[in-house]
Amino acid sequence: MLAALFGILFFLGDINASHPILISKSDSLTAMLDTTENVDSRVKLLRKIAQEETATNPIQALKHFEEILEIGINTEDQNLISTTYNDIGAYWYGENDLQESMRYYFLALEGLDEKAENYHLLCKVYNNIGWNFQKQKDYRRALDYYNICEKYCEQSDNISAVAHVLNNMGVVHKDLKEYDKALELLNQSLRLNRANGDIKRELFNINNIGVIYLERGDHVTANEYFAKALIMNQKRNDYFESANNLMNLGKSLFELNMLDAAEDTLKHALELSEITRSMIQKHEILNYLHQVKRKQNGYKEALDYYTAYNVLEDSLFKQGQYTDLIELESKYKVAQQERFLHESQNQLLRQQYLNTLYLAALIFALLLIGFLIWIYGSKKINERKLIALNKEIDTQNEKIQTINQNLEKTILQRTKVIQDQNNQLREFAFMNSHNIRRPLSNVLGLLSLLEDERNPEKISELIMLANQSAAEMDQIIQEVNRQLKEEEDL
């Protein structure tokens, strides 16, 4: 135990011999800013400059944040606006004005919808609000916000952020004296930070685990954690966390009644808190230095420490500040409810509009379907009529074809009859012309003879012969008439 203590005191001597000097980069960054016109590049530079100047020139840092905010408003970049509100809230937290800090955190939340691209920022803002309530010792309300924060951190797949909020929740459970739960959460955070290679937050975990062992009265284990974290933070030149480690180590030494070592350790922590401008750290360190000097009977120094502690008490914990924070939270929740109600009304209107569109579309679809059914029915009726007409036409065609066939047959028959008649007539004509010509020629010949004949006997004989030929010709003509009559009867 003594060897470990001497090792720590030797290390403290090394810290004392090398006070850190913070060199600001803001001048070189400001020179770059004068030549930067691109909006995105300018925003990045302004944020770097503001972060650099927060410790050395807080008023100028705030002006840079306000310029970023103006750019976000002009470009209507809601993510940039909310991010800058969160940065300004963190700035006012650093200035120990929790009311202004909380106001800006809630302003950051107002413009953030629950969308995947906003989960990371929602995780940050809810964590900061939880931290403000934690500082006001409203641990249950702090846990409520940390639980919301953890949900968004997990949804954003940000392992580092999940580890960070688990660490903060562990500290709250420590403050509630729920040590087992606190150790469980802090060890979860430690494993995530180690897996993620985040040494800075791993050292947060180690320091906070040491505080739990300190409150449980296990000073040896606590000092081992504090010393490990202190050595690593000093190597990393992290003066804020080094001050925390020294302060916790000083508390442990005070409880072990190692008052000189505790005073020396706490004075080193106080020097670092002056460099980092952490009023909250300084406030707690002054309280323990006051207790150490009282126990050492150094009343004059104890009074000085106590006076400085009370001055910070007034500035850090202003009368009514916690009430103001609760009022801000209530206003935010009312605004959120109004926003939710407004969004619900808008959603209802949108739904009604969509329902109207759906109804109109349904009516149109029904009319269209009815029209199509009517067209289809008309088509079917026309098709049936057309089929009936086609059948009737086919029937008529068949009848016409039958008539044509019969007509052709009749024509052929009549043609044949006519041809037969013509043939018969030709035969009759030939036959009759030949048969009639012969007796006619006889008559004509006899008549010619009669003209020259003077003998009465010869004349009588010729007349008789002429009568016979005329009778023969008459008989032939009667036969022709009979045959023609028979043809007509056919």
Automatic annotation (TrEMBL):
Lineage: Bacteria, Pseudomonadati, Bacteroidota, Cytophagia, Cytophagales
Catalytic activity as recorded in UniProt: ATP + protein L-histidine = ADP + protein N-phospho-L-histidine
UniProt keyword terms in alphabetical order: Coiled coil, Membrane, TPR repeat, Transmembrane, Transmembrane helix
Residue ranges the record marks as coiled coil: 379-413
Lineage: superkingdom: Bacteria
Protein name listed in UniProt: histidine kinase
Domain Signal transduction histidine kinase dimerisation/phosphoacceptor stretches: 425-480
Source species: Reichenbachiella agarivorans
Enzyme Commission code(s) on record: 2.7.13.3
Ranges for the TPR repeats: 163-196, 203-236
Keyword DNA damage part of the UniProt annotation: no
A Pfam short name: HisKA
